[in-house]
Specification:
Blueprint lengths: L1 H17 L5 H9 L6 H14 L6 H25 L3 H9 L4 H30 L2 H6 L7 H9 L5 H35 L1
Helix pairs in contact: 1-4, 1-6, 4-6, 5-6
């Protein structure tokens, strides 16, 4: 879900930043509306829509629900990154003979990578942690970790739940330390050069 959401959010953000079209502000507002709607409303609306379309609940609906929930986050983050891009670099590449695909591949995308990675990490975390949307979109045989933990809690807090919680906390700490360490190295390297 995070990969799909980040890809769609990146394309949407670039369109919103670079193109002018009729209804742009309305489209932008609609894209960000899931940020202000309660998850229970989104979950019920999505469930009703899937039942209306006669789509069986399962892995597809689970992923689609998580994508719908996380697209606004990825769009917002990549849009902020895309707004800060220096368009003269892309124009220079085009002047030197690069076609639009090469300009995107060799200039735009590398400049957007920090925003895209941030969007991916945030959407992954939101999707991984989501309970409400998963509850409404997961069918029989499709269980996410939060749903599994919730079902395990019905029997009481067990050592398995404690161990799982400890593992998740350690993974988060390791990820924060890795990203923080990388940023610190960049900062220290920049100060040494300056």
């Amino acid at each position: 879900a995070a990969t799909i959401s980040t890809a769609i959010g990146t394309i949407t953000a670039l369109v919103l930043v670079r193109r002018d079209f009729f209804g742009k502000e309305l489209f932008s507002t609609l894209m960000l509306s899931p940020l202000v709607l309660p998850e229970i409303v989104i979950g019920v609306a999505f469930l009703v829509f899937m039942v209306f379309l006669n789509i069986k609940l399962g892995f597809f609906t689970l992923i689609t629900g998580h994508v719908v929930l996380t697209i606004p986050y990825s769009t917002l983050i990549v849009r902020a990154s895309a707004s800060g891009l220096d368009i003269s670099l892309e124009e220079a590449a085009a002047d030197l003979g690069a076609n639009p695909w090469k300009v995107f591949r060799w200039i735009t995308l590398p400049l957007l990578i920090p925003g895209v990675l941030t969007a991916f990490l945030l959407t992954f975390t939101i999707s991984f942690d989501d309970f409400v949307i998963s509850m409404f979109t997961a069918g029989v045989g499709t269980t996410t970790l939060p749903l599994r933990i919730f079902s395990m809690l019905k029997l009481g807090i067990t050592p398995e739940i404690n161990a799982l919680g400890s593992i998740l906390i350690m993974l988060n700490l390791l990820m924060i330390l890795a990203i923080g360490g990388q940023q610190l190295r960049k900062l220290m390297g920049g100060e040494a050069v300056g």
